[in-house]
Write a structure and sequence with these properties.
single chain; 311 residues; alpha/beta; Cobalt-precorrin-4 Transmethylase, domain 1; Methyltransferase, Cobalt-precorrin-4 Transmethylase, Domain 2; 3 domains; 5-stranded parallel β-sheet; 43% helix; elongated
């Protein structure tokens, strides 16, 4: 067993099962079996894991470490490690620090020169991502979805990569309904009770899943995986912005060029699809761009577009 005979102890971050108690690595079992101290969110829940794998031993200290006591607990744990103790950090489920306590302890240990090692292992976010059927080459993990409607709208409407988020069962229907209003065809996967008896992964478009979970109450732990914003949603938003700019006094063609630069939607496509008649606006002398810089209309379009982005 690692003990105070060493001059400096160490900190090991140990992922634990997200549901099925057999989903734990051999290395994590070794560390938990040898550690002097196990810092955990809930000593009772971690105790179940230790008993299941027969990991308790004489001299093991189990200490709680959660968001309400981290400030007081961290100095004591760092002192123990400086005195030679091997501290294992676990969360209730999954990888420590991923929307779980532990960062202050890791930062303090590094600052004090205590060796820190992270073991690979279970993660609800990664498990949901690879099970979702959505692109995993580039993704953004946001923890729990924001509660505010405006912040949630900006997150869901503006992300150009796959989003992975935790969500509570009671808020799932509202979040899906908001996403369906923003982009009804956005691909989504609702991953529920991963690795447990009632595991379920529901895949579909935002509108479909919003309708389903409006009528069906979700239960258990949920990870929401949302595909990148589609070009259809970009076109619709850009078209609405173009109409708003034109109503504010901007000329259609310069405004379309500005919005194309902001959204990636083709300026010609945007202009033609939102121009009455044949899609060809008569060329006017006032539309010409001066040699020394953009025309007034383009400045107006730029300013209005910036206002829309800040809104």
């Amino acid at each position: 067993m690692s003990s105070s005979s060493a001059k400096v102890g160490r900190l090991t971050l140990c992922p634990t099962p997200i549901g099925n108690l057999r989903d734990i690595t051999l290395r994590t079992l070794d560390v938990l079996r040898e550690a002097d101290v196990i810092a955990c969110e809930d000593t009772r829940r971690t105790g179940v894991l230790l008993d299941h794998h027969d990991l308790r031993h004489d001299g093991l200290t189990l200490l709680s470490l959660h968001e309400h006591n981290e400030r007081e607990r961290v100095p004591d744990l760092v002192r123990r490690m400086r005195d030679g103790a091997h501290v294992a950090l676990v969360s209730d489920a999954g990888t420590p620090l991923i929307s779980d306590p532990g960062f202050p302890l890791v930062a303090a240990a590094i600052a004090e020169g205590v060796p820190v090692q992270a073991l690979p292992g279970p993660s609800a976010a990664i498990t949901a991502l690879v099970a979702s059927g959505l692109p995993a080459s580039s993704f953004r993990f946001v923890g729990f979805l924001p509660r505010g409607g405006g912040e949630l709208t900006r997150l869901l409407g503006g992300c150009s990569e796959t989003v992975v988020a935790f969500e509570s069962p009671r808020r799932l229907a509202d979040s899906l309904a908001l996403l369906a209003r923003l982009d009804p065809q956005r691909p989504v996967a609702v991953c529920r009770e991963l690795s447990k008896l009632h595991e379920e992964v529901v895949r579909g478009q935002a509108a479909e899943l919003a309708a389903r979970f409006a009528e069906q109450e979700a239960r258990g732990e949920i990870v929401l995986v949302i595909g990148a914003g589609g070009q259809q949603g970009d076109r619709r938003a850009a078209g609405e912005a173009l109409e708003a700019l034109v109503e504010a006094g901007a000329r259609r063609r310069p405004a379309a060029r500005v919005l194309a630069g902001l959204t990636g939607v083709s300026a010609n496509e945007l202009y033609r699809s939102h121009t009455p008649g044949s899609g060809q606006e008569p060329k006017r002398e006032s539309d010409a761009t001066p040699v020394d810089g953009p025309g007034t209309a383009e400045y107006e379009a730029t300013g209005a577009a910036d206002s829309l982005r800040r809104a």
